[in-house]
Fold this sequence. Notes:
The protein is of the alpha+beta class and 97 residues long. It has helices at residues 2-13, 44-55; strands at 58-67, 70-78, 84-90. Helices cover 25% and strands 27% of the residues. A hairpin with a 2-residue loop joins strand 1 (58-67) and strand 2. It starts with a helix and ends in a 7-residue tail after the last strand.
Amino acid sequence: xxxxxxxxxxxxxxxxxxxxxxxxxxxxxxxxxxxxxxxxxxxxxxxxxxxxxxxxxxxxxxxxxxxxxxxxxxxxxxxxxxxxxxxxxxxxxxxxx
Length: 97
């Protein structure tokens, strides 16, 4: 079981191929850490802190996407029990979706 969790964590930590498109209404953006914080918004580091505190899990992957015209941080999280979840944090408000 722990080998499966380790393999999953490794898979989740691997970078996405450039230009990868989700089947959802999200459009990945390049330069995640280099992207300036939106005016009045939060940074990716702040979004990660919010999500890790709120969900008690570790962020293993982070992307920036446009969802319904709003910029969001899409965070893949892994709990100590091996549960994987995807959390979206609004880049302007810091609200988890």
